[in-house]
Amino acid sequence: MIEDCIFCKIAHQQMPTELLFQNDQMVVFRDIKPHAPVHWLIVPRKHIRSINDLQPEDGDLIAEMIATARDMAKKAGVNESGYKLLFNVEKGGGQVIFHLHLHLIGGWAKS
Ligand code: 5GP
Ligand code: ZN
Prior knowledge:
The protein is of the alpha+beta class. The protein has a single domain, classed as HIT-like (HIT family, subunit A, 2-Layer Sandwich). It has two helices and five strands; from the N terminus they run H-E-E-E-H-E-E. A five-stranded antiparallel β-sheet has the order 1-2-3-5-4. Strand 1 and strand 2 form a beta hairpin. The structure holds guanosine-5'-monophosphate and zinc ion.
């Protein structure tokens, strides 16, 4: 856990945030400023700055993040309508919170 990291605080329940899912490795919660009807964040409890900082031993963690996103898409009811999974990487890639997270975005009206 890193002091002054907001997602470490949420992941270690030092900041009140409703968790939609949690297990030993991961937490899932709603984005505070959603860009779509469903905008959830899949966040490992382990502090990793960004995709650039992944180590070979983090392979299982990344696989679990993606599998969790798939399961949460089903829970949100967007698995059939479709959704986006997004990693922003570093400032130029739009990352503003430097604790690894995967955006699950969907729920737009069907045309
Ligand atoms: P990034 O741009 O770093 O990929 O995404 C960070 C996301 O975290 C943003 O979409 C932002 O709205 C969200 N966010 C920032 N601070 C908080 C917070 O305190 N609580 C929650 N639930 N989301 C946050
Ligand atoms: Zn952190």
